[in-house]
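Blinded run. Sample ID left blank on purpose so nobody reads anything into the name before looking at the predicted structure. Input follows.
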Amino acid sequence: MKATMKAMVIREHGGAEVIKPEEVHVPKPGSHEVLLKVRGCALNHLDVWVRSGIPGIKLPLILGCDVSGEVVERGHGVSHLNEGDRVLVSPGLSCGVCKECVAGLENLCRYYHILGSGRDGGYAEYVAVPAVNCFPIPAGLDFHQAAAIPLVFITAWHMLVTRVGMRMNETVLVVGGGSGVGSAAIQIARLHRCRVIATVGNEEKAKKARELGADEIIIHSRENIAEAVKKLTGKAGVEIVFEHVGPAVFNDCLMSLATGGRLVTCGATTGARVEVDVTRLFMKHQAIYGSIMGTKRELIDLLPFFATGDLKPVVDTVVPLADAQKAHGILEARRHFGKVVLDPTI
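Blinded prediction complete.
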């Protein structure tokens, strides 16, 4: 194993220009950890937020939470993985011993954090991760596809299946269907035979959302979401709203809910504060759910669907590790559909 590796490091918060190439030491896997040769690292908006300056983030830092790669070294106590194993990484890290972790609810652990924010991540040739977070890549998938799975599919599954208890044949509004988490949500809803209404920004993304299984499309750049939902549902509204944008669409999302409907949110891309008409909320017997990431148990549940082809990772663009600044530009300009993936081997 060589002593140094190439990595993209941030030493200050700011725009994409703060992501700079460096030659750094290859990490040594600790007890119950493995060292992976990174073959793919998918970008997420979390990377942008950490880069821009989330309070409490310690620098310098290597970003990147969605990693796929090959095991090249095992730390003490690792027996279920071998050198050469092809794995993807569940990005949520927790203490492992609190009551939430022991109960399999590690995303509620008070020490919960994400790879690439609380510790160095996958914008590098190698990364050390807990062995318990590594899972075999489903048959038929390459490393780029594997990297596009963990964060968005765990998050979407937890939101729809676990938090709001999605039932067969419901009508689901997926906001931002062209995003990584939105493209995952469309597929998970279709897996449950739900009618899917997806919002996207343009015709090109509309076509791709339909290919993933969306039944109807709302182009939010030229249509009011709530009014469009009323037309599509005969004024009944939708049983579930899948939301991750925040105040720019939140009121329209609430207005799109049917009586007894549930809204679940995992993000605040356009801001942190929203106004809620509480009278409408209780008179319509509606519910609002917050959701953060998900669990390794949920990843175990959903991975078999990739082997069968019922779920598919959506990769928009693959770029070399050295072009991480360019990749952030694609993400922030919302020019992508699905995931942008860095590859340190090209």
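Unblinding after everyone has recorded impressions. The chain has twelve helices and 18 strands.
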